[in-house]
Design goal:
It is built from 11 helices and 8 strands. It is α/β, with parallel strands linked by helices. Strands 1, 2, 3 and 4 form a 4-stranded mixed sheet that branches. Strands 6-5-8-7 form a 4-stranded mixed sheet, covered by helices on one side. α3 crosses α4. It starts with 22 loop residues before the first strand and ends with a strand.
């Protein structure tokens, strides 16, 4: 507006505005109707009226002291919980169970790195020959996670990024350490998880990065890259509908020819039962998403 009025010669230095959500908490009142803090409500016991969750404010005393949270869980845990619970443009309900869940994950990840089930491979060690199918699949999952998290961070989808990192953590924790190539895969996986979680938990990530044997600080290390071929989806799930009702699913390679998709969809038993004795008017194929048979 100032530029249009002639008062400034420069345009605004951004193309859009993202308004952050508010941190909310339950509200509490004593028998006299006075607002009380969560700590006072816990100490008071049964004589407390619990109100709806509202944005934290001094007037209603539904605030949580950051110092007590940091003392109990650490700043990284608090940051991880707030980023993982909801998108940044929506309100967040602060709960004890939420912060406890983030704390359990942080501790599990720390134990995985500091007390690995087997000795992991050295930094920079090449992928060995003859790795197991499970290790191959896990390698692809790592590349997919790097691609997805990189995209999520660019779009401010922090909660999605954290969810993907936790999924990868679960995969690494469940890996059979007796599989051929497991030590190499765990090196790749641990390095990747710590790197990806760095923006959310910078203090813990730097400590873990050093414990993994790296001498260059994490903040000075380039962001991990991914192989587009390994990150690409090998199959897609396509729903098959008859007159708008789901009758089956197909698991097919992405980009499969439309005629082949139509043939596979019509060959499904439940689809055959649904269209039995009726004329097929048309088959609508939305590539890699859905097939709708109209009868």
């Amino acid at each position: 507006a100032l530029k249009q009025c002639g008062s400034l010669d420069v345009k605004e230095p951004f193309a859009g505005l993202m308004t952050q959500g508010m941190i909310c908490h339950e509200t509490y009142q004593n028998a006299d109707g006075d607002w009380i803090t969560p700590e006072e409500a816990e100490a008071a016991g049964d004589g407390v009226n619990v109100g709806r969750s509202e944005k934290m404010s001094k007037s209603k005393k539904n605030v949580v002291d950051p110092a007590s949270i940091i003392d109990a869980y650490g700043a990284d845990t608090a940051r991880l919980f707030m980023l993982s619970d909801s998108p940044p443009d929506r309100d967040l309900d602060w709960t004890d169970s939420g912060i406890d869940g983030a704390w359990r994950y942080v501790n599990r990840l720390w134990r995985m790195i500091t007390e690995p089930k087997i000795a992991i491979a050295a930094i920079g060690e090449a992928k060995p020959d003859g790795v197991s199918d499970a290790v191959d699949a896990a390698e692809k999952a790592i590349h997919k996670t790097v691609a997805a998290v990189s995209s999520d961070l660019d779009k401010f989808h922090f909660n999605k990024a954290v969810a993907r990192i936790r999924e990868l953590t679960n995969l690494l924790d469940d890996l059979n350490v007796d599989d051929a190539g497991a030590a190499w895969l765990l090196r790749l996986g641990f390095d990747t998880v710590v790197h990806l979680i760095g923006p959310m938990m910078p203090h813990m990530a730097e400590e873990a990065w050093a414990l993994l044997g790296h001498t260059t600080p994490l903040t000075e290390t380039p962001w991990p890259t991914f192989d587009p071929e390994l990150a690409a989806e090998q199959t897609v799930t396509v729903g098959v509908q008859v007159n708008g009702k789901l009758r089956g699913t197909l698991h097919i390679p992405p980009g499969l020819d439309e005629a082949e998709v139509r043939e596979l969809a019509l060959a499904q038993d439940r689809v055959q039962l649904a269209i039995e004795g009726r004329e097929i008017r048309k088959v609508i194929v939305v590539p890699d998403r859905i097939v709708n048979v109209v009868v």
